[in-house]
Amino acid sequence: MPIRLLSPELATKIAAGEVVERPVSVIKELVENSLDAGASQVLVEIAEGGVAQLKVVDDGQGIPSGELELAFQRHATSKLENQEQLEAVATLGFRGEALPSIASVSHLTMSTRTPDSQNGHRLEMQWGEIIRSGPHGCPTGASVEVSDLFGNMPTRRKFLKSNSAESSRIQELVSRYALAFPHVRFQLSVDGRSVVNTPGNGKPRETLLALYGSEVAGAMLEVKGEDPESGYQVEGFISPPRLHRANRSYMTFFVNHRWIQNRMLSFALEEAYHGLLPDRRYPLAAINLALPYGDVDVNSHPTKKEVRFQEEGRVFSTLQRAVRAAVVADSPVPSVVSSGDSSRTMSAPGFPYPGSSFSGSRHAGSSYPTGNSSLFSPGGFSSPLEQPLAPPDTAAPRPPAPALKVVGQVKLTYVVAEGPEGMFLVDQHAAHERVLFDQIRRKAGEKTPQSQALLEPVTMELTPGQVEVFNANAEFLAGYGFQVENFGANSVLLRSVPGIMTTQDPAQALLDVLDMVAFEGLLRQQEDVLAATIACHSAIRAGKPLTEEEMRALLEQLEQADNPHTCPHGRPTMIHFSLMNMEREFGRR
Ligand code: ADP
Ligand code: MG
């Protein structure tokens, strides 16, 4: 084929491929436009994951009638005039690509009116072509309705997840923007049900309350910091060390009120909690960084979700210092921990070491003894080893003698074993997780799942997002032994947990399950995510003394696992020290 210029229509459709990946990308662009237009209210409605229909309505400044059609041309924007402005973008949008991109892959209707005009205007488009355009009575602001998204791009449709998965992404997005803009009232309804409704009164803690419930909103700590040299400012909320989650999905960062994803910022936040959180538990946070516009390059990603910092190190340390100050003010840290060495074994508050003196009860109604608020606390409920490590079926012949011989236990965390090839260090928690994961996966789908009833059912407050996930997965959870009932709009009643579970805090276990299924379930098989989370809440902890018999049982079962070398999260269960290496180290070779 000879080289030819693409037609404008095709060029737009190709650009749309980058900007509009899925329904949530459409919502993101429309909500950003509403915020750029100075809206004080943003209403979002979606049906069937946003694919069938979505709508964003705002009360911002609107578009003058004469400019509405122009707004749908590529590279048409009111937000940039010259190169200097591109060097210091102050608005969320600036590329002039969103409206034409969305219009090229959907049926779209926009009606809008500016405050100073009598009449509004309405424009209707299909696959990028104008169908109708004319005066229209409507309130000030803008309303964009999109239906049949990707109706002309069947391949893109095929890559979408289930409606409930797409809905939960949209809900996540709207919630994050609500946190960044507490002065704006956000409402989201999913298939007619209201799932987000923030007050928009400028009070961040009340926004947190609307999104995450009273328990979280009440506990969150305020963060405020400034780097005197650069004037970089950090402001927002973080969780106290006793409150934590199973993944990073509750960590939200904004740069100049733009929601962004950035590993460096997550790392800075986590570092500030060093020594205070149990392993693989993550803080909650909603933090805005206010930087001079010229110090941030927002033009590095088509959907603008990533940015580049001119002074990355300074951003890192400003954030980390501010967070650390807030955390330490909440719970004084033992001196060894703040020296920054490998002090994770110190009994800092909330840390699961047997010496930990911390105690607090988050779920007052829990029928389990609640010692430590973390799941990882030692002692208390029946020995985790009693059931899971007994031979799975007593009628079956005992497995052959293990190839690994137990030598002992190090730091109440690692089992030392001798094998034909040298020495092995086995992480007792990771190894047990692997064993239980296999058991849970094997038993999944049994007609009557094993479950243990709680002495007293626990009432739990869920966020609207968690309610969504629960409603969509109630049967799936029941199949694993979680008996949960709806109990009012935002509450559930937890009656039983999987039979295998030894957690002391069943409510936290269910919260983790809902969070993991919602966020990781988009990437991995839901069954695996659920089994891994249950295994994590059932496996013996680091810090638990084991008898020789228990260690032997653990190694035997590990040897029979489908994948003995890694835990379900992918971390190693054991490290091998080969004889040859040992001899080399000792200078015998
Ligand atoms: P960008 O936001 O990058 O400028 P868009 O394609 O998203 O590009 O929008 C084009 C223009 O349409 C914007 O610059 C703005 O002037 C106008 N616009 C879009 N949405 C709205 C809205 N909700 N209210 C007022 N003006 C809007
Ligand atoms: Mg825009």
Describe the protein in words.
By secondary structure, the chain is α+β, with helices and mostly antiparallel strands. It is built from 17 helices and 22 strands. α7 (163-180) runs antiparallel to α13 (464-478), α12 packs across α16 and α14 (506-519) runs antiparallel to α15. It is globular. The N and C termini lie far apart (66 Å). Bound molecules: adenosine-5'-diphosphate and magnesium ion. Residues 29, 32-33, 93, 98 line the site of magnesium ion.
Keyphrases for this structure?
five-stranded mixed β-sheet; 17 helices; 589 residues; binds adenosine-5'-diphosphate; alpha+beta; binds magnesium ion; single chain
Taking the sheet with the most strands, its summary is: 8 strands, mixed
- The helix fraction, in percent, is 25-40%
Number of distinct beta strands: 22
Which shape, going by the Cα principal axes? globular
Beta-strand content estimate: 15-25%
Number of helices: 17
Low-confidence stretches: 333-402
Look at the structure and give the mean pLDDT: 82
Derived from helix and strand composition plus strand pairing, the structural class reads alpha+beta
Q: Radius of gyration, rounded?
A: 27 Å
Straight-line distance between termini: 66 Å
Write out the strand line-up for the largest beta sheet, numbering strands in chain order.
5-4-3-6-2-1-7-8
Bound molecules: adenosine-5'-diphosphate, magnesium ion
Regarding quaternary structure, how should these chains be classified? single chain
